[in-house]
């Protein structure tokens, strides 16, 4: 039986450098640990430490830490919640707490990262981000309920900061930055919707708050990503971290291209 060499922090750091990650970058990372390889010394912690080592003290590491489990049970579909339990679920659900609420559907790397000392997590109960490094507080300091991934969100501040996006074993379908493009352009079927989130707990009952958003979705994000790579060859680079197929791209170029694509094609 052939036993593969374990993947170390240094191996991951070397691969990140070869891909183009540099000290001082502001880097939004979407990740899949299992894509990196089967034997990583230190697991998700090793990936986080390698990212932080390459970015250095001047850089800022950012990850999405969404918590879709804190949405209204009426909207659940996989699996759906029986309507007879909706009120019980709403009353019993713990409200969002940036220190306590677990991530949902993000993978193990963001879940470990959000608990690291020095990490700042934004305040949105559904689509929070977490950051660590030089600009973490500035990037995360405000995240209002309304238009959760729009102009007042960390995504817009990342755009202003000239951030990069690293898809580490993750595809364009999970590229959160494309959501910012949905707010910045008109597309067929775009509308304002009312969402709800648990915000505080009083006398044993969770209180919910309504807020306004748009009906954003990611159904065509893979097509947008393919168009971006075809039309903007100087704005991204392909490579590998361990065994994970990766893309490192300029977030601003991605968002601008997606906005144009959406207006023409959605």
Describe this structure in words.
By secondary structure, the chain is of the alpha+beta class. It has one domain. The protein has helices at residues 9-19, 33-36, 43-55, 86-92, 108-113, 136-140, 154-160, 177-184, 221-231, 251-265; strands at residues 26-31, 60-64, 120-121, 129-133, 164-168, 192-202, 205-214, 236-241, 244-250. Strand 8 and strand 9 form a beta hairpin. The longest helix is centred in the C-terminal third of the chain and has 15 residues, at 251-265. The chain is globular and about 50 Å long. The relative contact order is 0.17.
In total, the number of strands is 9
Chain-averaged pLDDT: 96
Uncertain spans: none
Distance between the termini: 51 Å
Helix content: 25-40%
Question: What is Rg?
Answer: 19 Å
Number of structural domains: 1
Choose one word for the global shape: globular
Helix count, DSSP H or I runs of 4 or more residues: 10
Major β-sheet annotation: 7 strands, mixed
Q: What is the helix/strand order?
A: HEHHEHHEEHHEHEEHEEH
Strand order of the largest sheet: 3-4-2-1-5-9-8
The proportion of strand residues reads 15-25%
Q: Structural class, from secondary structure content?
A: alpha+beta
